[in-house]
TrEMBL record:
PROSITE patterns: FBOX. Residues 1-42 form the F-box domain. This is FBX15 protein. Gene3D superfamilies: 1.20.1280.50. PANTHER family: F-BOX ONLY PROTEIN 15. CDD domains: F-box_FBXO15. The gene is Fbxo15. It comes from Calcarius ornatus.
């Protein structure tokens, strides 16, 4: 029953976040909270002083600004949209500026954690059932590695898998971030779609990574691990493995419905080497189980001759089976750690692989973070230095394949990597360099 003029006067004392919140109360409040006069004041106060057109040195200047045609000739909510656009643009610029600093060891941004903190970035998953109802799962646990972050969600009120159709992974940031104020869960937020997964027939259509006494792990590309209670059709936890390469862009620059698509690579012309694009690759490889690291190594000067290109793949040999000087020991027993509110465990004979392949200019060429399972090979070791069972671990996506061979040494209770080969799709190479291999 309060007159609109009085409500507008009250609203004029609110900050932007509170104004957006009060606009969600009802239709009348929404219309009043879109008032151009209120938002023009907020817009004017928020801009940098170098924009002299908006400098307000006196009440007279403010009166002139608010009485101009820019106020009366615009549709309701115009200055609200302009204010949000300017604030979010400045915020994205500030965050993207932080990720320009590269780590010479990995070739990836070295200030990812700082950028995530500045942005107030978090991740959520949205489960959608077959009736269209959505279930939002927040409050994940984070584990940071050199080139990736592992995000784990668990709880006691997961919907039954039988009724679920899709799972969407979102990056979430405050719509109007303010470093002086902690992010408010109930405040306006911006969603950026990272990936969407189909859960129908999950146990039949996905790759089983492993199991222990309590859970079974199923892998969905890209980089998602779903833990199911053993003997039940219920989710125990969900684990997402996010590689740092373009992580912030995908978590911030996308929309709630469309994933962010990075710009195409601009190849550097090379008039000397006829094998351009097939030399001086660098690889950074991490094998971990979420809480522990089994292998962390960098490999330089990787190359491929034209005769090694076959079946649509470029072959890069990282660890040669016949060169025992490059064979790599694994620290600890391979497995993926998991936990819920009550239980925790470790699924053996699997791990998370973080791969970062850089081209000759140091640009990330092929990157992923994904769970990988091991299988016992039927062949026995023919190496004189290592006598034991051979295990293989393979990964494949649209951009390439990774093939690893391990030998298990019973005497020392450790794995040795005796072969590591990357197969990069020629489609990926041609798209990246604008060539035709």
């Amino acid at each position: 029953s309060m007159p609109s003029e009085m409500l507008l006067k009250i609203f004029s004392y609110l900050d932007a976040v509170s104004l957006l919140a009060v606009g969600c109360v009802n239709k009348r409040f929404h219309e009043l909270a879109n008032d151009n006069g209120i938002w023009l004041k907020l817009y004017s106060r928020s801009l940098h002083p170098k924009w002299t057109i908006w400098k307000m040195k006196s009440k007279q200047t403010e009166t002139v600004s608010l009485g101009c045609a820019a106020l009366h000739d615009k549709e309701p909510g115009y200055w609200k949209k302009e204010y949000i656009f300017k604030k979010t643009s400045a915020f994205k610029t500030r965050v993207m500026r932080l990720v320009k600093f590269l780590d010479p060891y990995t070739g990836l941004p070295c200030k990812n954690k700082e950028a995530m903190k500045v942005s107030g970035l978090s991740w959520i998953i949205v489960l959608k059932d077959k009736n269209g109802k959505e279930h939002v799962v927040e409050k994940p646990n984070l584990s940071f590695k050199d080139t990736s972050v592992t995000v784990l969600w668990h709880g006691t009120d997961w919907p039954c898998l039988d009724i679920l159709s899709t799972l969407k992974l979102f990056g979430v940031t405050p719509l109007l971030p303010d470093q002086s104020i902690p992010p408010n869960k109930n405040g306006p937020r911006r969603f950026s779609l990272i990936a969407e997964y189909h859960l129908a027939n999950l146990t039949e259509n996905s790759v089983m990574v492993g199991a222990d006494e309590l859970v079974q792990l199923f892998s969905l590309s890209p980089g998602l691990l779903v833990g199911m209670w053993k003997g039940k059709n219920e989710i125990a936890f969900v684990m997402a493995n996010l590689h740092y390469n373009q992580l912030l862009e995908r978590s911030i620059l996308g929309s709630a419905t469309v994933q962010y698509s990075p710009p195409p690579n601009k190849p550097l012309l090379d008039d000397i080497d006829s094998e351009y694009g097939l030399h001086d690759y660098r690889l950074h490889l991490d094998l971990h189980g979420r809480n522990c690291v089994y292998l962390c190594g960098s490999f330089k000067c990787l190359f491929c001759r034209k005769r090694d290109i076959e079946n649509g793949y470029v072959r890069l040999i990282v660890v040669n089976l016949k060169d025992n000087r490059k064979h790599l020991p694994i620290i600890g027993t391979l497995g993926i750690c998991w936990e819920t509110d009550v239980f925790k465990g470790n699924v053996k004979d699997c791990f998370v692989m973080d791969l970062t392949l850089l081209d000759e200019t140091g640009m990330p060429f092929w990157c992923f973070s994904a769970p990988v399972h091991m299988e016992l090979s039927t062949k026995s070791s023919g190496l004189y230095d290592y006598m034991g069972h051979i295990y293989t671990a393979d990964y494949a996506d649209s951009e390439g394949k990774v093939c690893i061979e391990f030998v298990w040494l019973e005497e020392t209770k450790e794995y040795i990597i005796v072969s590591l080969v990357l197969y990069v799709s020629t489609k990926k190479v041609n798209s990246w360099y604008g060539t035709n291999y």
